[in-house]
């Protein structure tokens, strides 16, 4: 085994490790986005993201779209309401 063969093997291992790392990050992202946005179905979105990784990306677009949408009847961005209520200097807001 020459030095060039060893170098090629190291490059191959690094590329495989990077691909696996990116795939894992893509599986975690929909769940983290939904949790950060306080989505009521964040756990289901997290599961959908991981199943999307297992099925080689078939469910990942669905998980990303689901993480960014709000269910009907839930207050949120689609009705123009902000996530943090506006306050006056004279009033206190309980969070």
Description:
This protein is mostly helical and 95 residues long. It has a domain at 22-70. Helix content is 59%, strand content 0%. The chain is built from 3 helices and no strands. Helix 1 runs antiparallel to helix 2. The N and C termini lie far apart (65 Å).
Layout of secondary structure:
Layout: H1 3-36, H2 42-54, H3 60-68
Give the gist of this structure.
The protein has 95 residues and is mostly helical. It has helices spanning 3-36, 42-54, 60-68.
Task: Measure the end-to-end span.
Answer: 65 Å
Rg, Cα atoms, Å: 21 Å
Mean pLDDT: 83
Number of DSSP E strands: 0
Tally of helical segments: 3
Largest beta sheet, briefly? Answer: none
Helix fraction by DSSP (H/I, runs of at least 4)? 55-70%
Secondary structure class reads mainly alpha
Measured by DSSP, the beta-strand proportion falls in under 5%
Order of helices and strands: HHH
Write down the overall geometry.
Answer: elongated
Low-pLDDT stretches are 77-82
């Amino acid at each position: 085994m020459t030095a060039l063969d060893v170098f090629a093997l190291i490059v191959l291992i690094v590329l495989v490790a990077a691909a696996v790392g990116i795939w894992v990050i893509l599986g975690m992202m929909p769940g983290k986005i939904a949790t950060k946005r306080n989505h009521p179905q964040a756990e289901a979105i997290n599961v959908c993201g991981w199943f999307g990784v297992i099925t080689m990306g078939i469910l990942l677009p669905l998980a990303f779209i689901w993480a960014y949408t709000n269910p009907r009847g839930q207050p949120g961005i689609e009705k123009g309401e902000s996530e943090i209520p506006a306050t006056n200097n004279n009033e206190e807001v309980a969070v």
